[in-house]
Amino acid sequence: MRVIIINGPMGVGKTTVGKYIAENHPGTAFIDGDWCLDIHPFVGNRETKTMAIDNILHMIDNYKNCSVCKMIVLVWLMDDRWVYQKIADGIASMELEVQSAVLVCDKSNLINRWENDGKCEWRTREWLDVSLQSLKFFSSLENNIDTSGLTVGMTADRIMHLS
Fold first, then answer.
1. Is 3.40.50.300 the CATH classification of the domain at 2-160?
2. In whole angstroms, what is the distance from residue 98 CA to residue 20 CA?
3. Residues pairing with 41 in the sheet
4. Is the CB of residue 105 less than 8 Å from the CB of residue 36?
């Protein structure tokens, strides 16, 4: 079974692309890592991230054992390398295929997407500044896809054809 991990800064389109892949590939489970760390008020420290990783890996293991599940898409902002590595190692220990994609875009595209997403409570100026500052880090990671000028479908297609 294939597990696609989609990483990238806030507002780049991870959730949109992940849902698109799931909706267009029957038998695909969609996991949003934010569901696994939904504490109010938000606290993103080592303890809570470790708990979220454990929650994510439990979900993946359960989907792995489901006869109708053929693929899993996990979307989550992983701006600490250790977080990604713990998840990738956990998936590999389940003997599942891990495929990673890091979505990035240029600053003007990120600002435009941010301003046009009225659904998310995180879309504040403060968090936009944090997201813009993280672009350099995410651009330095392997398997990054610059989504500037790409449609959701084009981005999903590139992810599906990564080796």
1. yes
2. 19
3. none
4. no
Task: Please work out, in degrees rounded to the nearest 5, the angle formed at the alpha carbon of residue 81 by the alpha carbons of 75 and 84.
Answer: 35
**Which is nearest to 52 in space by CA: 38, 70, 73, 68?**
38
Dist. CA 110–CA 22, nearest whole Å: 23
- Rounded CA-CA distance 13/6 in Å is 10
Query: Would you state the structure tokens that stand for residue 134, as one six-digit string?
Result: 């993280």
> For residue range 64-78, what is the model confidence (pLDDT) as tens digits?
999 999 999 999 999
CB-hemisphere CA count at 13 Å for 57? 19
Query: pTM of the entire structure?
Result: 0.95
Give the residue from 83, 75, 78 showing the smallest Cα distance to 46: 83
